[in-house]
């Protein structure tokens, strides 16, 4: 399982610049006019994880494989996209494929980057929100009331839910903000509603605002109701992308930042999607694997290979901290820190695991 994120925003909000910074190289066609992105640019970004190098040193492995995040730079949205304006239909089709949405909102002035209206990130968000709500309403309007004479209890419940969600969307409430039960969320999941997707709000700010907190920026731009926002100065991130690791640390320190905004963005993605990481450590390779919180040991094994899940016998598990403290598998076992876990075991963040399985 890998995190898949769609980067969306109005034309010239800085999506492609952010995308380029994420990938540390020029991929997206970045131009200061609308629709320079027509098809989504797709890129894979490695998740920085300092634990991997520590494990590799302990087990004497020369190969490190980090977890990855897939980012899609999706063409700029305009008012009327739900009716096919601009690149509307393509935009909406591409966004359905992402597990989460990053809203890039412009909060910078630049005479070289075209914009018809004054900079107003809250207004930009409202435009995007409206179009996504309208697109979801179109999806729901295609649903048909079941025939009462043959409808099952589940059919009737599903239809009542469609009506409930439709009414809320008409009132401007996004699906993810609706008071739905877990059963209702599962029931509506096959419709792939856009406003049901977890959202991350990124403010593309000027350099002078890069070190401001989420609260400070929310007050500055008057959208406290959006919740947490991540300030990103895409230009700074592009500069960071060209630096070596140590140079990057020094540059961030000069700016008064502890980590890059892009690292914060990836962490937020894991948080809102309820993801966690387990680790495998052997001489051949040290690797990070992404799973959902609450996944069982067999399900985690299946992320490595489906045969591992089918033939799962047990898992040898040790926490990352104990693995490091006792110098690897042998030391951790001698200290009694390696546990044998069965099919019911729920994986924890940072578990170092070796799966035992039978594929016969």
What is this structure's SSE topology?
Elements: E1 3-8, H1 15-23, E2 41-46, H2 50-59, E3 64-65, E4 68-73, H3 88-95, E5 100-107, H4 121-141, H5 153-170, H6 182-188, E6 199-205, H7 214-221, E7 229-232, H8 234-241, H9 245-254, H10 261-272, E8 275-281, E9 286-292, H11 297-304, H12 306-310, E10 312-319, H13 320-325, H14 329-334, E11 339-341, E12 351-357
List keywords for this structure.
360 residues; alpha/beta; Ubiquitin-like (UB roll); 38% helix; 20% strand; ATP binding
Give a verbal description of the structure.
The protein is of the alpha/beta class and 360 residues long. 38% of the residues lie in helices and 20% in strands. It has 2 domains: 269 residues, P-loop containing nucleotide triphosphate hydrolases (Rossmann fold); 64 residues, Beta-grasp domain (Ubiquitin-like (UB roll), Roll). The chain has a 6-stranded mixed beta sheet, with helices on both faces. A 3-stranded mixed beta sheet has the order 3-9-8. The longest helix has 21 residues. The protein is flat, with a radius of gyration of 23 Å. The two termini are 25 Å apart. About 5% of the residues have low confidence. It holds the Pfam family MMR_HSR1.
Helix count equals: 14
The profile of the biggest β sheet is: 6 strands, mixed
Q: What name does the CATH topology of the largest domain carry?
A: Rossmann fold
Using the 3D structure, state the CATH architecture of the largest domain.
3-Layer(aba) Sandwich
- Portion of residues in beta strands equals 15-25%
CATH class label of the largest domain = Alpha Beta
Structural class: alpha/beta
Integer tally of domains: 2
Q: Count of DSSP E strands? A: 12
Biggest sheet, spatial arrangement of strands: 2-4-1-5-6-7
Amino- and carboxy-terminal Cα gap: 25 Å
Portion in helices:
25-40%
| Structural Rg | 23 Å
CATH superfamily (homologous) name of the largest domain = P-loop containing nucleotide triphosphate hydrolases
Query: Spans with pLDDT under 50 lasting ≥5 residues?
Result: 25-38, 84-88
Domain TGS: 274-357
Binding site for ATP: 12-17
Protein name: Ribosome-binding ATPase YchF
Cofactor: Mg(2+)
